[in-house]
Amino acid sequence: MEAKPAAPETKIPTAAYRNLLLATVGFTLTFWAWDLIAPLGSWYGDRLSLSSFQQSLLVAVPVLVGSLGRIPAGALTDRYGAKLMFPAVSALTIVPVLLLIVVKDSYGLMLVVAFLLGLGGTTFAIGIPLVNSWFPPARRGFALGVFGMGMGGVALSGYFTPRIAMHGENLPFVVVAIALAAYAVFAAVLITDRPDRPVPSASLAHRLGRAGRLRVTWELSALYAIGFGGIVAFGVYLPTYLKTWYGLDPTDAGTKAAGFALVTVVFRPVGGWLSDRIHPAVVTAVALGVVALFAVVQAFDPPLNPGGTTALLVMAAGLGTASGSVFALVSQVTPQARVGSVTGIVGATGGLGGFVPPLVMGAIYSAKDSYSIGFMLLSDLALAGCVYAYGRMRNVRPEADTPAPEVSKVAARPT
């Protein structure tokens, strides 16, 4: 592995840690809201007499919209800052959360509200540029990894939402709405954008176009689609796989899937921490190499205990590590003024990348009565990412950013 040259210690202001904490809490809460429908999917299915496809569509709409919405959210954060965007998005997310109570008896209206609920999934692209701006390069990987733990909001939703619903079918939405409202107030008061951050003045379309023309945007998107996309794919499909192939009951399958999700959350900051000490491209390559190896192991259908459980948990660790190291790489190879725009595109690709594998796995199982081919395809994809990260991304340097008028800097000292 290639170690980074030692960098001089830079004193990190207290405001950096305050903003990291607030961003992580906000990310967690909005992701809980984003995932409110999925844990109650079977309840909606019974209530509205939905087919399997209709139920899947209802669960998928917020995820798809939230993934795509990261593109404009990231660009808007570049322009207006997280101090405005975080409380605004958190407050606006309250609207669809409460509307879920009103429209619960209409499938058509549920789809409309599910579309609006996707707003909660956009905060990922708001927090990344905020955290990135406050921490020096030598500490940025770990900080971004800690922020990334907010994706555990999905796991919190999966565990707590149905349990809160046992005390009242509308109670989960009221609880989340109150939490979002309280957070929006705290965020408006306590979040501070770094005073000397680059502030672009060009139009949203122009900035997105420029970010889209950066080669690294699509290279990073491909790597993140494997890392985070793999996490999303397993989150969506692992309970089905465990029930279908290993014969687990729904509760046991859900518990094991939650354990997989927890491992990915824990290893995301590990990927960032390692990236502060080793080049993030090397960390990404090793993590994806591990995923490739254990996907082959799982393709041979080992017994669940201990072989299958070990293989799945090691893959979870690898995918979590890779998702953390890729965003450490974003901060290294992207011009500072475009971090939000690039983050939006990369984050959107990662979220969308998680919905192709479950469709492929389901189709392969229907045709071949086996999941082995699907795991071999995952191995091939992870191996390709491993080779590309090590062979190409180690040598990438950020392209020189253009001067004003596109980017203006506010000259001020960080507080």
Word description of this protein:
There is one protein chain. The chain is mainly α. It is built from 17 helices and two strands. Strands 1-2 form a two-stranded antiparallel sheet. The longest helix has 32 residues, at 215-246. It is globular. The model is unreliable at 401-415 (pLDDT under 50).
How many helical elements? 17
Principal-axes shape call: globular
Number of strands: 2
Strand-residue proportion: under 5%
Biggest beta-sheet profile: 2 strands, antiparallel
Low-confidence stretches are 401-415
pLDDT averaged residue by residue? 81
Distance between the termini: 37 Å
Radius of gyration: 21 Å
Order of neighbouring strands in the sheet with most strands: 1-2
Helix content: over 70%
Structural class: mainly alpha
Order of helices and strands: HHHHHHHHHEHHHHHHHHE
Outline the secondary-structure elements.
Layout: H1 14-34, H2 41-48, H3 52-80, H4 82-102, H5 107-117, H6 124-134, H7 137-148, H8 153-165, H9 171-190, E1 198-200, H10 204-213, H11 215-246, H12 250-277, H13 280-299, H14 304-333, H15 339-353, H16 356-368, H17 372-391, E2 407-409
Antiparallel strand pairs: 1-2
Brief sketch in words of this structure:
By secondary structure, the protein is mainly alpha-helical.
Features of this protein?
17 helices, 2 strands, disordered C terminus, mainly alpha, 415 residues, single chain
